[in-house]
Design brief:
Blueprint (H helix, E strand, L loop, with lengths): L3 E4 L1 H9 L5 H13 L3 E4 H14 L4 H10 L1 E3 L10 H4 L2 H12 L2 E4 L3 H6 L3 E2 L4 H11 L6 H6 L2 H14 L6 H14 L3 E5 L2 H14 L8 E5 L4 H9 L3 E5 L21 E4 L11 H10 L3 E5 L7 E2 L2 E2 L6 E5 L13 E5 L2 H10 L4 E3 L2 E2 L10 H11 L2 H18 L21 E4 L3 H10 L27 H9 E4 L7 H12 L5
Parallel strand pairs: 1-2, 1-4, 2-3, 4-5, 7-8, 7-9, 9-10, 10-13
Antiparallel strand pairs: 6-14, 11-12, 13-14, 15-16, 17-18
The protein binds pyridoxal-5'-phosphate.
Length: 505
């Protein structure tokens, strides 16, 4: 994770007033922090800085205001340690230190006492040594801290709003998120649930209550999906029927679906894997022709547009995960169901809450899988920027696609620009073990999505003897490179340069 830096009051004053002896150095630090979006200032400093600048050089006030708008603001926490810290430090230093600690930042200060006493205070003269040390730490696969700090003030307000409401389960935030997410997806109903697995289970259970599915019915699903899709089918007492993916998209091969349809087949459950939409037009036609339900797993593809329609509106019902690492990620577990089917919406709404719509009246034996108020409040903030975040992921993916040139690496393909939101940038390599070692040596984070195919998992012993050669090959060769809305240009350049040198003697 990249270091964040909080600037102390005096540093900002000296930088704005361009004090002769520090001017050049401080401005270089500021430039670095601003261009990398790593610089913070504490709320407790702002009015003091404004007062002192105005006193010394009122003409500089405009420059200060511009600077404050470009820096990010860290709160001054209310959890002041009156007994211990204050005894040693002055109040202002303690508040600054707390402010930096609240975001896990280092505090840049010239206060020598503070540098001696505090584990997180550093002198501006040492700043670039820290940056250098950090570079040596390499590039994480996903810097979630940085992703979420982009929303810090909004998330803080969302927390405060929820906290002060005193209502933490199924309140206004969940209602508003459900409304906003349904609108975003272009459907009538959204039902907030505890996680993505439950979203799929509750859809399947809901269809059972509606009489459209029954125990042991077969559900067609891609063989190379994340295991949760298949677990959902099993947990609903239905039978997963695995279908090989198309090797060029890693999504279910629509040409291989019909051969798997039997009298027991009642639904198709495609997954928009890695962020790219499955071939929904062709799959919808197969579903219609064979009178099958179409349910899609949108856990990895929030915001993707398939022929102008968003995921969440492409099937009879859709399941979403908002696991923290997803393109739209909560700060904990969260999920949602979307549908245009009013009856399914009512039933899943009831099933997520013990099977009850009216307090203490239970129509079904439901579960407890409600979207938390606090997560809904956070998600409402992040939903506002999901399209921008997806665009940044597309830019990163395009950079990789244009610049990775190594015959040992198979790059991902995409069919239409907006139908891919690049949750994962998955490459393939026959010498994956060597590539993994090489990336580790060069400190480039990477993840295998996924190392063992579902039908080879111990949990699915009944499927272990089945053979899916394309799936098995993908699981042997696939590897995901870092991709996110906060991956910097220099990080991408470094990754590409290294990958292009892989295997080159
Ligand atoms: C394709 C897919 N389906 C379902 C899930 C399950 O979501 P959750 O972790 O929120 O239960 C995930 C999450 O990783 C996923 O990637």
């Amino acid at each position: 994770m990249k270091n964040l830096y909080l600037l102390d009051t005096q540093f900002v004053i000296d930088a704005v007033l361009e004090k002769e002896e520090t001017k050049e150095h401080y401005l270089t630090i500021l430039e670095y922090l601003l261009s990398n979006r790593l610089g913070y200032i504490s709320t407790s400093s702002i009015s003091k800085i404004e007062y002192l600048i105005n006193k010394n050089n009122p003409g500089r006030n405009k420059i200060l205001k511009e600077l404050i708008q470009r820096l990010k603001i860290a709160k001054t926490p209310s959890y002041i340690d009156f007994h211990n810290k204050i005894a040693k430090k002055d109040f202002e230093s303690h508040l600054l230190e707390l402010s930096a600690m609240s975001i896990g930042a280092l505090l840049i200060t010239t206060n020598e006492n503070l540098i001696d006493e505090s584990k997180i205070a550093i002198h501006p003269d040492d700043f670039f040594d820290y940056v250098k040390q950090e570079k040596n730490k390499g590039i994480p696969f996903l810097d979630l801290k940085k992703v979420n700090y982009e929303y810090y003030p909004q998330l803080e307000k969302a927390f405060d709003d929820t906290f002060k409401s005193g209502w933490f389960i199924l309140g206004n935030q969940v209602k508003l998120f459900e409304k906003e997410f349904a609108e975003y997806c272009g459907v009538k109903y959204c039902i907030g649930v505890g996680n993505g697995l439950d979203a799929l289970i509750l859809i399947l259970e809901g269809y059972k209550k509606l009489g459209l599915l029954k125990n042991e019915d077969e559900v067609i699903v891609p063989a190379n999906t994340f295991i949760a899709t298949i677990i959902a089918i099993s947990k609903a007492n239905l039978t997963p029927i695995l279908v090989e993916p198309d090797i060029s998209t890693y999504n279910i091969d629509p040409n291989k679906i019909e051969e798997k349809i039997t009298k027991k087949t009642k639904a198709i459950l495609p997954v928009h894997l890695y962020g790219q939409c499955a071939s929904m037009e062709q799959i919808s036609e197969i579903a219609k022709k064979n009178h099958l339900l179409l349910i899609d797993d949108c856990a990895q593809a929030q915001g993707a547009l398939y022929k102008g329609r968003r995921t969440g509106s492409l099937a009879d019902a859709s399941g979403f995960s908002f696991y923290p690492g997803k393109n739209l990620g909560a700060l904990g577990d969260a999920g949602a169901i979307t549908t245009n089917n009013e009856a399914l919406s009512n039933i899943t709404k009831s099933l997520r809450n013990y099977g009850s719509n009216l307090k203490y009246e239970n129509k079904f034996k439901g579960v407890n899988s409600r979207l938390d108020e606090i997560q809904a409040a956070f998600l409402r903030q992040k939903l506002q920027k999901i399209d921008k975040e997806n665009e940044k992921r597309r830019e990163a993916a395009n950079y990789y696609l244009r610049n990775i040139k190594n015959r040992a690496i198979i790059l991902p393909e995409y069919r239409e620009k907006f139908s891919h939101v690049w949750h994962v940038f998955a490459i393939r390599c026959k010498k994956r073990k060597e590539l993994q070692l090489f990336l580790e040596q060069n400190r480039i984070g990477h993840v295998i999505h996924y190392p063992i195919p579902p039908h080879k998992q111990e949990a699915y012993a009944e499927l272990n003897m089945q053979s899916y050669p394309i799936t098995e090959m993908i699981h042997k060769e696939i590897l995901s490179l870092p991709i996110s809305s906060v991956l910097s240009e220099s990080e991408m350049e470094y990754i590409v340069k290294k990958i292009n040198g892989f295997g080159v003697k």
